[in-house]
Design a protein that fits this description.
The structure is a single chain. The protein has 588 residues and is α+β, with helices and mostly antiparallel strands. The protein has 17 helices and 17 strands. The protein has a domain of 67 residues. The chain has an eight-stranded mixed sheet with strand order 10-9-8-13-14-17-16-15, sandwiched between helices. The two termini are 37 Å apart.
């Protein structure tokens, strides 16, 4: 993971060696004394705006890279993949029996059905020793209002606020939250039963879009009116619409007070961030340092051209202490009291490693990502071997999302006019599709070098011709050009023409529209920059739960105009599921 992320460099995908003869070891764990060489890299530390960042410099291309904790990324990957762990199958519990611990699912011939227990559990008898055990046949403990679960699910994914749900279903808030917990568990179990099969899914090619959304947690006490800002990274297949994951940089499994105490005992605050025991978590010392160095919220100015916005994003990333870390704490935000906020770049690395685990049998995969340095680095870290083999490419896609409907319509009409002029100029057949014509135009632009060099890395950006209404002004940059392996202009133009974020953006749009907890803010005047979000939650874990509930609904229940769900289009499911199928799903 800690290697040069420049695909054109000889050190791309080659990590720094941990032990080299003659290397001076650090005086203490997590400290660096001066500069030292590790194989093809120089390891050192730099200071920007008062913050110390551990870096490795590639000795070939001279790229400077922030070091990340391998342990922290692996912990995040395990957290993200936890729902895929297969449920434990019941087995004989007699330790003296030869069949002890042999699961029923794998050794059915060792057991025999032995009736039911109170009509709620199936009983089985071990043929070897005669001992019996039971298997649950209901999804949860008895609920006096279980008949309300299907309606609750439907109201939840149709933007009914929690208070209104309580009124409609005649239940209190405590009961509602307990049912949301239940629905979340059922959604995870139901999705896992299908998504465990993803590593066996064979596809010739797949086009995946990635982007992030930010969410706000309201303050819970009136004497501390600071919001909690969390970020979720999502990825979707552009063809089927299937959403592989939507992961929030928050871990509810830990208590912040316990981790802070353990961090103090192991002296984590005194250790450089990549070498810490709790490297992936936002500790109080990180918060205080970030708050002291905060540059403040970016002011909204006049509407700018997309090229200017892209150039500014490069400058902003380069000005960071850690180019991959975009989060910034300030005096108007706080860390969660329950659970722990994760450094967003670790969630990015974990998410990309998760996709790598899910898609080993996809022959060619192309990623279309919003321009974010951390996401690019995470993508190249997870798929370095595939990039080298020419089976994976990454493209930056930047879209002007501030345009009103009239500007969108005007740009679409201009794009169609440009295509028609190109058709006439080249004498192309009038029956050629708009998609085919656009690809030919892109091919000409690439051959003539009609690209913009932007940013300190001199990335080449293409003005995407004749974009669609949902992406009316768009620029695209190829990030995996290895120089020694050039695609033909025809093939590269085809990849450029497919560059789009529409798969994940469509999910984002519906998520905002259909989940009341995730609404956009109610803007109010405030001298301190605080904003109250009318329906936003008070607990961060509820954001992750409703996102996952909606993701499962979106993938397996909600059908499109073609009568299919995203899971059906991907080849993961044979038909649409019903809400009841999820609620009453029982792992066997």
């Amino acid at each position: 993971m800690n290697f040069c992320k420049n695909p054109a460099c000889v050190n791309f995908g080659i990590p720094a060696k941990e032990n080299i003869k003659g290397m001076v070891l650090p005086a203490a764990p997590g400290t660096l004394t001066g500069r030292r060489h590790r194989d093809n890299y120089t390891i050192g530390k730099s200071r920007k705006s008062g913050r110390i960042v551990v870096r490795m410099v590639c000795n070939d291309c001279k790229a400077s890279l922030p070091i990340k904790s391998n342990k922290g990324v692996n912990e995040e990957l395990l957290r993200i993949m936890s729902y895929l762990r297969p449920p434990k199958s019941p087995a004989c519990r007699n330790k003296k029996c030869k069949s002890y611990g042999l699961p029923l699912a794998d050794f059915k011939w060792l057991y025999t059905f032995h009736g039911t227990s109170n009509g709620k559990s199936e009983r089985y008898r071990c043929k070897t020793c005669g001992a019996t055990f039971s298997i649950k046949t209901t999804t949860a403990k008895p609920q006096s209002t279980s008949h309300k679960n299907p309606m609750l699910f439907k109201l939840l994914v149709n933007k009914m606020p929690f208070q209104r749900i309580c009124e409609v279903l005649e239940m209190d808030m405590h009961t509602l939250y307990s049912k949301v917990d239940f629905l979340h568990r059922q959604c995870q179990a139901f999705a896992a039963s299908y998504e465990r099969n993803l590593p066996e899914l064979k596809k010739a090619r797949m086009y995946i879009s990635l982007d992030r959304q930010d969410y706000v947690v309201n303050w819970a006490v009136t004497n501390d009116k600071r919001n909690i800002i969390l970020h979720a990274l999502g990825s979707a297949d552009n063809h089927s619409g299937f959403v592989f994951g939507m992961h929030l940089n928050f871990d509810p499994a830990f208590r912040s007070s316990d981790v802070e105490e353990n961090a103090r005992l192991c002296k984590d605050p005194e250790v450089l961030p990549p070498f810490r025991r709790f490297a992936r978590f936002w500790l109080e010392c990180d918060y205080q340092e970030s708050k002291a160095l905060a540059k403040g919220a970016k002011k909204e100015g006049r509407s700018r051209k997309l090229k200017e916005t892209v150039a500014d994003s490069y400058a902003e990333a380069q000005a960071r202490e850690d180019i991959e870390a975009y989060e910034e704490m300030s005096s108007v935000v706080q860390l969660p009291n329950n659970g722990l906020q994760i450094h967003a770049e670790y969630t990015m690395y974990g998410h990309m490693a998760f996709l790598h685990k899910l898609l080993p049998k996809v022959s060619n995969v192309r990623f279309f990502i919003e321009r974010e340095s951390g996401l690019r680095a995470a993508c190249l870290a997870a798929f370095a071997d595939e990039v080298k083999d020419g089976r994976c490419d990454a493209f930056f896609v930047s879209i002007n999302k501030e345009l009103n409907i009239h500007d969108r319509q005007r740009l679409v009409q201009l794009g169609k006019r440009d295509l028609e002029e190109f058709r006439c100029r080249k004498g192309h057949w009038e029956g050629i599709s708009e998609t085919g014509l656009r690809q030919l135009l892109i091919e000409e632009m690439l051959e003539n070098g009609i690209l913009h060099s932007i940013g300190n890395y001199k990335d080449l950006w293409l003005d995407y011709p004749a974009p669609a209404m949902n992406e009316p002004e768009k620029m695209v940059s190829w990030q995996t050009d290895m120089k020694n392996r050039r695609y033909s202009s025809f093939h590269l133009a085809k990849l450029y023409s497919k560059a789009s974020l529409h798969g994940i953006d469509r999910f984002f749009m519906q998520l905002r529209r259909r989940i009341s907890l995730l609404e956009r803010p109610i803007k109010t005047s405030s001298a301190t920059g605080r904003t109250w979000y009318g329906y936003s939650p008070y607990k961060p874990e509820n954001i992750a739960k409703v996102i996952e509930i909606f993701r499962v609904f979106y993938n397996y229940v909600k059908v499109g105009d073609d009568g299919k769900t995203p899971a059906m289009r991907l080849g993961l499911a044979r038909g649409p599921a019903k809400v009841e199928d999820i609620i009453y799903y029982l792992p066997r």
